[in-house]
Amino acid sequence: MPGRIIAHVDLDYFYAQCEELRRPELKGRPVVVCIYSGRTEDSGAVSTSNYEARKIGIRSGMPIVQAKRIAGSNTVFLSADIEYYESVSERIMSLLRSYTPVMEQASVDEAYLDLSEVVSDFDGGERKAREIKNAILSSEHLTCSIGVSSNKLLSKMAAGVSKPDGLTVVRPEEALDFLAPMPAGKLFGVGRVTERRLSEMGIQTVEDLRSVSPEILKKQFGSSMGMWLYNASRGVDEEQVMDRKREQYGRIITLKEDTRDRSVLVDNASRLLNEVVRQVKADALRFKTVSFLGIMSDLSARTKNRSLPDFTDDFEQAARIMPILVDEFLSEHPGNLRRMGVKVSNLSEDRGQKSLFDFA
Ligand SMILES: [Mg+2]
C-alpha cells in the first residue's frame, strides 16, 4: 500500500506562455502581461512575465510603471486577454480530467490530480506525470511543471522547485529532507502575517520550524494554524483532492463593437456553442439547458434560457435553439450588446454510464 499518489500540475508562466503561443515572434523577448486598471495610461500591475522578463527583474504584482522603468526596448507589454487564457485553460483542464476521476482545478493554471486509483506506485506516478506533460505539449504546445508526492502540500511544493518544464517526485521517505532547507515562510498555505511572525521568531527554514514544539506554535499562531505548521513542516497534509463537479460550461466574448445585429450575434453564438459542446463531450457529459447571454453597453447582464426535451451532446440540436434565443433576447432587451456568450447547463453523465434510474 503506497498510500496516496497526488500530482500537482502547474502551467508555466501561463498568461505569458499563451501569448508566446499565438505570437511566435515574441519568443526569446521579455514578455510582460499586464492588468491595466485604466485610471492613467500605465496604472495597473504586472500579471505574469516570461522568464526573459524575470531575468531583468520584472515580476508579478509589480506596478507597470516600475516594470517599464527597468524594461529594455525589446520588452513587450501586453494587456491581459483573460478570455483567451481561459479558453486554453479549459481545454487543458478537460485533458487533465481524462487522467483521473478525482481532479481539482485550483486556479486557471493549476490542478491537483489524485492518481491513487490510477497508478500503483510512485514510479507509475512519475510515468503518468511525464505522459501528462507530453499530452499538454503535443495538444496545446504549452509546458507545465508537475510535482508528484503523497499529498497536496508536498506536490505543490515539488512542482515549484523545478520550473519551467519540471517534473519532481517526492517519495514519502524523501519528504523530510525535501522540505528541510526550504524557507518556512514559503510553505504553501503560510500567509504574509504568519511569514513575518515566523521570521520574528528567528525561524528561517522548515527544519528550524520542526524544532519548535506544538505548544509554542499553538500559542503563537492559534490552535489550528499552530498544528498546521507543526504537521506541514513534517510533510504531513491530509487535505483531500476535491472532485468538484462542474455545473455549467460557457464562453463569453467581447464584441468588436457594441451591436444588436442579429446575424453577428447568431454567428458568434453558434461558434461559441460549438466550442462549448466539444468541451462537454470531451468530459463525457450531456446537457439539457442552453443559454444565450448578453452584457449590454451599460454593463447590465441578461440571459435567455431554453431546455431541450432530453439530455444531449449534439451540437446541431443545440444550435437550432440559438437563433430563437437571440430573437427573444433582442425583442426583450433594447440597446446594444458589448459582450455576449453562450452556456450549457443542467448536466448529466454520458449515456454510456448508466445512472441509478436505469436499473429502477
Ligand atoms: Mg503557473
Automatic annotation (TrEMBL):
It catalyses: DNA(n) + a 2'-deoxyribonucleoside 5'-triphosphate = DNA(n+1) + diphosphate. The keyword Ion transport does not apply. Keywords: Cytoplasm, DNA damage, DNA repair, DNA replication, DNA-binding, DNA-directed DNA polymerase, Magnesium, Metal-binding, Mutator protein, Nucleotidyltransferase, Transferase. Its EC number is 2.7.7.7. InterPro entries: DNA/RNA_pol_sf, DNA_pol_Y-fam_lit_finger_sf, DNA_pol_Y-fam_little_finger, DNA_polymerase-Y, DNApol_IV, IMS_HHH_1, Rev_trsase/Diguanyl_cyclase, UmuC. It is an enzyme of class 2 (transferase). It comes from Candidatus Sysuiplasma superficiale. It comes from the Archaea. Binds 2 magnesium ions per subunit. The gene is dinB. Transmembrane segments: none annotated. The record marks 15 as: Substrate discrimination. Its cofactor is Mg(2+). The keyword Endoplasmic reticulum does not apply. Poorly processive, error-prone DNA polymerase involved in untargeted mutagenesis. Copies undamaged DNA at stalled replication forks, which arise in vivo from mismatched or misaligned primer ends. These misaligned primers can be extended by PolIV. Exhibits no 3'-5' exonuclease (proofreading) activity. May be involved in translesional synthesis. Pfam families: IMS, IMS_C, IMS_HHH_1. It is found in: Cytoplasm. This is DNA polymerase IV. The active site is at 110.
